[in-house]
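A.,

Following up on our hallway conversation. Structure tokens first:
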């Protein structure tokens, strides 16, 4: 087999590198879309249940506390963040 010329090999590596970078951008974009959808669903779920239980039920605070106990490794479920999701 013939050895590829240096300039052809450089083009090949550049094309492969561009593919890797584009895949990473698409992956990050997809993850961001999923997180936004998750936050939207959480916010609507809270608003629905808060409507059923009333404003004095401290539903957001109780939800935050319960989520933090179940998932201590997860970040972003403080009462303030849950209010933003709503």
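Then the amino acids I'd put at each of the 86 positions:
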């Amino acid at each position: 087999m013939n050895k590829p010329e240096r300039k052809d090999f450089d083009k090949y590596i550049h094309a492969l590198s561009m593919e890797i970078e584009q895949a990473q951008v698409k992956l990050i974009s997809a993850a961001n879309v999923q997180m936004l959808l998750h936050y939207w669903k959480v916010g609507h779920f809270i608003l629905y249940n808060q409507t059923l239980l009333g404003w004095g039920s401290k539903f957001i605070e109780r939800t935050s506390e319960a989520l933090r106990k179940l998932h201590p490794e997860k970040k972003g479920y403080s009462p303030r963040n849950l209010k933003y999701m709503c």
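The chain has three helices and no strands. Curious whether your intuition agrees with the design.

B.
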